[in-house]
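sry for the spam today, last one i promise. C-alpha cells for design, 291 residues
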C-alpha cells in the first residue's frame, strides 16, 4: 500500500519512508518527559514551537502524546489528558498543514482532538482499551495506527513470553486490522506498529526488526518506533545511561536497516538527523543501482 488515507488528507508512501516527529506533552516520558514544562506546567507555546521546529526539520507527521506509556508508568485521567493535548492540537492545526496524530487509547480524547483538526489516532492498545474507538474511527474516517503490545504498561516488561514473536505479533495485528475493517474502516486508513519495547525483551525486539519482511505480508504500511529505546543498549554493548540521547547512533543504524527492508514510517525524536541519514542512504543506493 503506497498511500495512507487520513481524515482529510493522505500521505504518499511511494517515494521512501517518512518521519513522524515525537512531541511529548508529558512530565514523565522515558526520554524527554518534562522538556516542554515550565514551573511544572505544560508550556503550550513552547510545545507548538517545538512541533513546528520538527516540521522544519522534515517531519511529515507530528505525533502528540499526553500520557506516558513507558514501562512502569501510571495512567492519568481523561480530563488531564485533554488538558495537556487539546490546546496544543488546536493551535498546531491552525499553524501547519502537516498532519497531527494523537497518541491516545481513549475515544473521547481522540474525538475532541479530531474535532480540533487532528488527522490520526495512534492507539497503543490497537483499539482494545476503549469500546468507543471503533465507532469513532468509522464515523470520523481518521487515519489510525494499531500497535501490538503484551500486557499493560505498568507490568508489560515483567516477564514477556512468546513462542514465535514475529508470527504472534503478525497474527495479532492481522486480527485487529480485520476487526476494524469489518467494523467499516477502509484498509487504506490503517497503519500497523509491532510495538517495539511494549511487552518484549531485547531479543524479541531484535527479532521484530529482522522480521519486518514478514510483517509487510499483512499488506498495510508499517510504523516502527525504535527511537532512543533501551533495547538498543543490548546491540551496542553500552550500559544504560541516564541520558537516552546517547542512543542516537544506534537509532540511526536501526532506522537505515529497517528502511532497507521497506518500512514506510518511523516515529522519531531527532528528526533532522534521521532525515539526513535517510537522504544519504537513498541517494547512495540510487546511484549504485546497476545500469
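last one done:
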Amino acid at each position: 500500500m503506497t498511500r495512507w488515507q487520513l481524515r482529510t488528507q493522505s500521505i504518499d508512501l511511494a517515494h521512501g519512508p517518512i518521519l513522524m516527529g515525537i512531541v511529548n506533552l508529558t512530565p514523565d516520558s522515558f526520554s524527554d518527559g518534562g522538556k516542554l514544562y515550565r514551573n511544572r506546567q505544560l508550556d503550550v507555546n513552547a510545545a507548538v514551537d517545538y512541533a513546528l521546529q520538527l516540521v522544519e526539520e522534515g517531519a511529515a507527521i507530528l505525533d502528540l502524546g499526553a500520557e506516558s506509556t513507558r514501562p512502569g508508568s501510571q495512567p492519568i485521567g481523561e480530563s488531564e489528558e485533554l488538558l495537556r493535548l487539546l490546546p496544543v492540537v488546536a493551535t498546531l492545526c491552525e499553524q501547519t498543514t502537516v498532519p497531527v496524530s494523537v497518541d491516545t487509547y481513549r475515544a473521547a480524547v481522540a474525538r475532541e482532538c479530531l474535532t480540533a483538526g487532528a488527522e490520526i489516532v495512534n492507539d497503543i492498545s490497537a483499539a482494545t482499551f476503549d469500546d468507543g474507538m471503533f465507532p469513532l474511527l468509522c464515523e470520523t474516517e481518521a487515519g489510525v495506527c494499531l500497535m501490538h503490545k503484551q500486557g499493560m504498561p505498568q507490568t508489560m516488561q515483567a516477564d514477556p513470553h512468546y513462542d514465535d514473536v514475529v508470527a504472534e505479533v503478525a497474527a495479532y495485528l492481522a486480527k485487529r486490522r480485520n476487526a476494524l475493517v469489518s467494523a467499516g474502516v477502509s484498509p487504506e486508513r490503517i497503519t500497523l506498529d509491532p510495538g517495539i519495547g511494549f511487552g518484549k525483551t531485547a531479543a524479541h525486539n531484535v527479532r521484530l526488526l529482522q522480521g519486518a519482511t514478514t510483517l509487510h505480508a499483512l499488506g498495510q504500511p508499517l510504523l516502527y518506533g525504535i527511537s532512543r529505546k533501551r533495547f538498543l543498549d543490548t546491540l551496542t554493548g553500552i550500559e544504560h545511561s541516564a541520558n537516552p540521547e546517547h542512543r542516537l547512533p544506534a537509532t540511526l543504524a536501526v532506522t537505515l536497516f529497517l528502511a532497507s527492508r521497506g518500512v514506510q514510517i518511523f516515529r522519531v525524536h531527532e528528526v533532522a538527523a534521521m532525515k539526513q541519514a535517510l537522504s544519504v542512504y537513498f541517494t547512495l543506493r540510487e546511484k549504485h543501482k546497476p545500469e
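The longest helix spans residues 165-183. ok im logging off now
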